[in-house]
Amino acid sequence: MRLPRGVVAEILPQFVNPGDDSPLPGREREWHLVIEYRVALAEEERQWGEAERLLELKVKRARQHVAPYSDSHNELNQEKLEAFHTLAGTLIRLGDIRSRFRQADCFRRTKRL
Question: Average pLDDT of the chain?
Answer without folding.
Answer: 84
